[in-house]
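Example complex used in Figure S2.
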Amino acid sequence: MSEAVVIFSVVLALLVVLATFILWLTKDLLIGVLSSAVISLVASIFFLILQAPDVAITEASVGAALTTGFFIFALKYVGRREDD
Amino acid sequence: MIRKVLYFLILIAFGFFILSALSAYFPFGENVLTGVARYYTEKGVKDLGGINIVTSVVTIYRGFDTLGEVTVLFLSVTALAFTLVGLKVEKAKLPKPTLIMETGGRYLAPLIILFGAYVFLHGHLTPGGGFPGGVIIATSFLLLLVTQENYRFKKFHITTTEVLAGTLYVLVGLLGLYYVKSFLGNFLKTGKPGYLVSAGIIPIIYILIGFKVGSEMTSALNNLKEGGDEH
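Predicted assembly (315 residues):
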């Protein structure tokens, strides 16, 4: 792996950590769903860097797109706020 | 708050165990192929003619697993429909789409469907295959369901597609049992590797899986949007 790819990966990994903290701390479920979509998208880029394009295309379409759609439809039924 | 900290600690412990287990199994960056993995990468192209070895493994070598996955997907979609009917969930109230959403969705959806069809037609040549292709098609229907007000499709058509694709998939497997004595075995000529019409039954199976997954996911999304009232 070249230098640029390593720097790119580190930035993406930091993005995953940030999204995880947002997902952990937020009370708004819609923001949680969107940050889990961000985690899936970054994971698919990682799969591409690690030369697994089949897994990458599946992760991008299932994890980032379709699951988010399902969760947003589900949030229409259960409401947006998490009550503790 | 205490609960959230507890979740976080459990997550870290879990991640630590998975990481240590994985690094014990596969040292990072080393090229080690043993047993069947070596066989697949060395003989896969010659055996079946598909240059994307992952699809050869998924459809032929481990074809029975794929049939199981399709069945699991079918069962979970059915369970979702039953749950929605049983709980008597009302129709979801989506916000009214704006003009930009409506027009953009109308022009984007056919292109996404075309891309999904490309992904599952070229499953034996390029990365992708039936599952991602079908999911991409379902994503375009998700776009239409969200952006077009009062968008509907005939439920009959989508159920017919699903049933037909599933039945034909099992039928192709049974033909393999008849001709080459193994369920989902390849009974066609493999052709020249790298061409669109090659790799025996892999493209046929992937077209069927693409249609099945696409129609299943679309009907699940439609059920979620309509709620349990209208069935």
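Chain B has a mean pLDDT of 83. The interface with chain A takes residues 3-4, 7-8, 52, 54-55, 89, 92-94, 119, 127-129, 131-132, 135-136, 138-139, 142, 146, 217, 220-221, 224-225, 227 of chain B (CB under 8 Å).
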